[in-house]
Specification:
Layout (H helix, E strand, L loop, with lengths): L23 H39 L3 H8 L3 E2 L2 E2 L1 H14 L4 E5 L5 E4 L14 H7 L7 E3 L7 E10 L1 E2 L2 E2 L6 E8 L3 H57 L18 H57 L6 H32 L8 E3 L1 H11 L1 H7 L2 E6 L4 E5 L1 H17 L6 E9 L2 E8 L33 H11 L5 E5 L3 E15 L26
Parallel strand pairs: 11-13
Antiparallel strand pairs: 1-2, 3-4, 3-9, 5-6, 6-9, 7-8, 10-12, 12-16, 13-14, 14-16, 15-16
Length: about 550
């Protein structure tokens, strides 16, 4: 957190990602690229595999009766024995016409009796009959049977049952089974040719097609991601700028109109609200720190003077006691007592102000007559005003409603304001208390005819220990806490204490109290000119703010 005293925070290096893939956009781009590449490879593999299965299914459907037609042309098994001449002729002819097929003669148990292949290429001596029976039973295609050239592979096939024959002629259709003519429709040469064709065209075309689709899909995805993360990037820049400013300048970009939309809008509005609060809190901390330092300095100064005075008079009284007259001793003690009372008053006001700042004061709200309270307070200052030859006036409207407030605290406000006015009004001047209805409340105005408050001093007049310069008041008479206490009390009541002043015309302090709704006090206004007290004493120069 920045130094609340206002010192500039140490410079920090701005964090830029060294690699683009460390940014959110870069990570999303890399993830999408890998995902599209994986999907492309899977899609290509799936297309090639399904196309091969499709071709095999079509091949099996087209050549479903191939084995039956071959068996009808020649007698391959005669009375359970292989007709070698017919078999060799059939193998030779078919292999010359269609080299993609492979022909096998099976006995009734599935053992391979003869085949159209070179010796050594057939790796099985037995074929499972379950797929054979399924195909002969008109099962749904594709049906895959054992591939004799592979120990574990299967391929589509065509098969027919061979009935027993004698002397080169077939016997009755219900004759016993002599074996099977088993034809592999996708032979080894077909597979090799398909692999070569796939390498030369299919895979190349698929690779280019999939690559193009990946590129287009990736480009579209990156554009969408860029559009979606644009606001997040702007928000990150706002946060970085806010950090570099030492958390002293809220982001300048306002949030969008209307209620928040997606999560980024919520994040942006929350950050702007949070940054504004941080700036406000840091500013408050700096103000509090400044006030604390001023408070320590002012308290030290205001305590030092009366304490030094008390110490000096008492020390003088002690050292010169044998030579002092009774009148001098009395005068020294009276001066020391006066300064000790001032110290006691200032300490009490400091405690009161601290309680008000900490909101530890509980209001005891009750209805009371403001005009009666005002008259009582004015009477308390009759002697002081008479000694300064200052006139006191009360201007109270007839039928003034009662107010609802804490009478003890409002009395403190009136005492501070009237005392402040009396001490700053020159000889022959006037201090007036004006109360009259104003809307739903009672407006209270305490005015004096003193030298007024300079315009440059008005913003600071309610600060603790603040004393306006050039007001003709003696700073020894006040600690600069009276107006601060009055303002805190009115803040607790939900009212504001304002001031109007012009040079050489005096100052007016104004606030409003809530009127009681159920009671009205009538005929409480005294004469417009009361408490006129004039004496021959000269006005003292007091502090402008008590």
């Amino acid at each position: 957190m920045p130094d609340p005293t206002g010192a500039a925070p140490p410079a920090r290096a701005r964090h830029h990602p060294r690699f683009p893939f460390r940014t959110l956009y870069g990570k999303l781009a890399a993830t999408l690229f890998g995902l599209f590449l994986l999907l492309g490879l899977l899609y290509t593999t799936w297309i090639i595999r399904t196309s091969q299965l499709y071709l095999q299914e079509v091949n099996q459907k087209l050549n479903l009766n191939l084995a039956r037609h071959l068996a009808a042309e020649r007698i391959l098994l005669d009375d359970g024995r292989i007709n070698k001449a017919a078999a060799e002729e059939t193998f030779k002819t078919l292999m010359a016409i269609n080299r993609s097929i492979e022909i096998y003669l099976l006995d009734p148990d599935g053992r391979i009796l003869a085949f159209s292949a070179a010796p050594g290429v057939v790796k099985r001596d037995h074929v499972s009959l379950a797929p054979v029976r399924a195909l002969l039973g008109d099962g749904p295609v594709p049906i895959y049977g054992d591939d004799p050239r592979s120990e574990t592979g299967t391929k589509v096939f065509s098969v027919t049952a061979l009935k027993r024959a004698r002397g080169g002629r077939p016997v009755a259709p219900d004759a016993s089974l002599d074996g099977y003519l088993y034809v592999i429709l996708v032979g080894e040469e077909y597979t090799s040719a398909l692999r070569l064709v796939g390498q030369s065209r299919t895979l190349r075309a698929s690779a280019w097609g999939v690559g193009l689709l990946i590129a287009l899909g990736l480009l579209a995805s990156l554009l969408i991601v860029r559009w979606l993360t644009r606001r997040l990037t702007l928000l990150a820049r706002e946060m970085e700028a806010f950090r570099e400013s030492g958390f002293s300048e809220a982001p300048a970009l306002p949030s969008g109109p209307g209620p928040p939309g997606d999560e980024i809008d919520v994040l942006g509005s929350t950050f702007r609200e949070m940054s504004g609060r941080i700036v406000e809190q840091i500013s408050n901390l700096r103000d509090v720190d400044r006030l604390r330092r001023d408070l320590v300095a002012n308290v030290s100064h205001d305590l030092r003077t009366p304490m030094a005075s008390v110490h000096g008079y008492l020390e003088t009284l002690l050292l010169k006691e044998p030579t002092l007259t009774q009148a001098d001793k009395k005068r020294y003690l009276e001066v020391a007592l006066k300064h000790s009372k001032g110290l006691s008053t200032m300490v009490a006001e400091l405690f009161d102000l601290a309680k008000l700042d900490a909101r530890e004061v509980l209001l005891s709200v009750e209805p009371f007559s403001l005009c009666e309270l005002g008259q009582d307070v004015l009477q308390r200052f009759e002697l002081l005003a008479a000694s300064r030859r200052v006139e006191l006036k009360s201007v109270l409207s007839p039928s003034l409603p009662m107010v609802e407030a804490d009478i003890r605290l409002i009395e403190r406000v009136l005492v501070n304001l009237i005392e402040n006015g009396v001490r700053h009004t020159p000889e022959g001047g006037c201090v007036s208390l004006d109360c009259h209805p104003d809307g739903e409340g009672i407006l209270v105005q305490v005015s004096d005819t003193g030298p007024g408050i300079p315009a440059v001093e008005l913003p600071h007049i309610f600060e603790r220990f603040y004393r306006a310069a050039g007001t003709g008041a003696d700073s020894a008479d006040g600690a600069g806490l009276g107006l601060a206490i009055a303002k805190r009390i009115l803040d607790l009541h939900g009212s504001a204490l304002s001031v109007r002043s012009e040079p050489n015309t005096g100052a007016s302090f104004i606030f409003t109290l809530r009127a009681a709704e159920f009671r009205t006090l009538t005929d409480c206004a005294p004469d417009l000119e009361r408490h006129r007290n004039v004496s021959n004493s000269s006005p003292r120069r007091d502090a402008r703010v008590s």
